[in-house]
Design a protein that fits this description.
By secondary structure, the chain is α+β, with helices and mostly antiparallel strands. It is built from 14 helices and 18 strands. The protein has two domains: about 350 residues, Glycosyltransferase; about 110 residues, no CATH class. The strands form six sheets. Strands 10-9-8-7-12 form a five-stranded mixed beta sheet. The protein has a four-stranded antiparallel beta sheet with strand order 11-6-5-13.
Length: about 525
């Protein structure tokens, strides 16, 4: 049913607020007096007002990248379905149908666009921040003499390379920079001769280049920005280039994008008064099945342990920086929510079976904290969280070395995991009522600040307020189905914080209605 989705485009610019006696104050920029303004309103009227302020432009026009649809437009669709659940007004679902059809027109195969593999996939390509970038070095005739690929996990399209002749014959210099990483590298006296001690691949390439990189000025230190491979010994001409992102039809976005569309489809299939939405519902179901047919054939793997399963980020050599490894748990979470909807809509057991295996993967990695009666868990799983890998393992083409570390799941992506947990529990899979209470304790004891004014960064409860993640706190409301205290404490935190948010408003309205049907929900 309802998972969490990021909704950055729906967050209104926050002011500096203080709360007092359930009222909200705003600091006056003109004088030192504090003037009382209206408290945050949680109502359908206010939600509609906030929705009317959203840009009417198709986000794809503004930013032609799958991420704009996954973290933007799909989030808008989730909010529209929330408002339908809060009001039963079909106009919200009709808007989902309109926007959903528009969203599908941007899928790679609908546009006839191939990603970096040269294949046309039934998915949406990302080609900006989180992919490998590349470019070629040319000789005087314009022939490619070397290819360059990035090594960090992100922002590789900001890597710039300047090649200049050295004072010595058949020698040249390289300057490499990336403004995001604030890193500058310089190499001199380089050669294209494999027998030369200053051979470019030997001097520049680092077989242990890390997944991330550090800021600073580096001279003749192996690069942590690029990897070079020569194809011809001809000396390149002087040139300045910027690496170009390699687009990838990223299947990690499938669950995120299709989930709200399938939520609408389930309502259309179950309520006679929504019969006019059935054609759109059937289009959405068919589209989701097309996408998963491709993803399942290429990227589904059983494991790491018996009874578990996951999707690869991409095939080996494609442009997700950590190619040929499992997608993070939170992406598996949204595949689970979406494929359980497909199971209910189509009756195909394969969707339920994969969902059970992905859910089991998270359950088996949820560490029980007996003192707090709660769970903590990591962002990824093995080998990312354990031994990592080395060049000789030949696991990833893009990241040849990875030092494994059990990095905690953050409270932002964590709500995607909560969506999986609740969706699986509703189907009677993997997660028990006891598990749900423990995950709700993770929220109440680790994620929410004790004074209920904000949230911490990670599910282990370390650190103070992490303001950037507050707008997504509403995603944890799903746990209110098991523990009504979740609803009351999140609502309190939202009002105390005083940062108005359309997605938050819609979710609170939805849960305000749902709480009336939950035993012991009054407080």
């Amino acid at each position: 049913m309802k998972p969490y989705i990021f909704l950055p485009v729906l967050l209104l610019i926050p002011f500096t607020f203080q709360s007092y006696d359930n009222q909200i104050f705003k600091k006056n920029d003109i004088d030192s007096d504090e003037k009382l303004i209206a408290p945050i309103e949680i109502s359908r009227k206010r939600a509609d007002e906030l929705f009317s302020k959203l840009p009417s432009t198709d986000p794809w026009i503004v930013r032609q990248d799958g991420s704009a649809l996954a973290w933007g437009e799909a989030a808008t669709l989730e909010t529209l379905v929330d408002l339908y659940e809060a009001t039963e007004d079909p106009s919200y679902l009709k808007e989902v149908a309109r926007r959903g059809d528009r969203l599908l027109t941007h899928r790679d195969d609908r546009r006839g666009i191939a990603d970096g593999s040269g294949k046309i996939r039934p998915a949406w390509s990302m080609g900006l921040k989180y992919v490998v970038a590349k470019e070629d070095l040319l000789d005087a005739s314009g022939k490619v003499v070397a290819s360059i690929r990035s090594t960090p996990y992100a922002n590789n399209d900001l890597t710039k390379i300047e090649l200049t002749p050295d004072s010595k014959p058949a020698r040249f210099n390289l300057k490499i920079s990336n403004s995001f990483w604030k890193r500058n590298e310089s190499f001199s006296d380089l050669s294209f001769d494999p027998k030369d001690e200053r051979f470019i691949e030997k001097i520049v390439n680092d077989p242990l280049s890390p997944y991330s990189t550090r800021a600073g000025e580096y001279t003749d230190t192996k690069s942590n920005l690029i990897r070079v491979k020569i194809s011809d010994s001809t000396i390149p001409v002087a040139q300045s280039i910027t690496l170009k992102s390699i687009p990838l039809a990223y299947t990690g976005y499938l669950g995120i994008i299709y989930n709200p569309m399938l939520r609408m489809a389930e309502f259309a299939r179950s309520k006679p008064e929504l019969a006019d939405l059935l054609p759109a519902a059937n289009r959405f179901i068919q589209a989701a099945e097309e996408s998963y047919k491709d993803a399942n054939a290429r990227l589904w793997r059983n494991g790491p342990n018996q009874g578990e399963g996951y999707y690869l980020t991409c095939e080996r050599g494609e442009s997700f920086p950590a190619d040929n490894v499992g997608q993070p748990i939170n992406f598996l979470a949204m595949h689970t929510s979406t494929q359980l909807a497909l199971f209910r809509l189509t009756g195909k057991k394969e969707y339920r079976d994969r969902s059970e295996k992905m859910s089991q993967l998270l359950k088996n990695r949820s560490k029980y904290d007996q003192e707090g009666d709660l769970y903590v868990w990591t962002y990824w799983y093995e080998p990312m969280t354990t031994v990592g890998w080395k060049p000789e393992d030949k696991l990833s083409s893009n990241v040849m070395f990875y030092k494994g570390a059990p990095n905690m799941e953050d409270s932002s992506h964590g709500v995607l995991d909560i969506a999986m947990i609740m969706a699986a529990n509703r189907e009677g899979l993997v997660f028990t009522k006891q598990d749900l209470m423990r995950f709700s304790n993770t929220l109440l004891k680790n994620v929410l600040l004790p004074d209920r004014t904000g949230i911490r960064r990670a599910v282990d409860g370390k650190g103070g307020d992490h303001a950037a993640y507050f707008p997504i706190l509403h995603g944890w409301l799903e746990l209110a189905a098991a523990n009504p205290e979740v609803y009351h404490e999140i609502r309190k935190t939202y009002l105390n914080r005083g940062e108005e948010n359309l997605a938050f408003t819609a979710e609170l309205l939805r849960w305000e209605r749902k709480m009336k049907t939950i035993p012991s929900a009054s407080k």
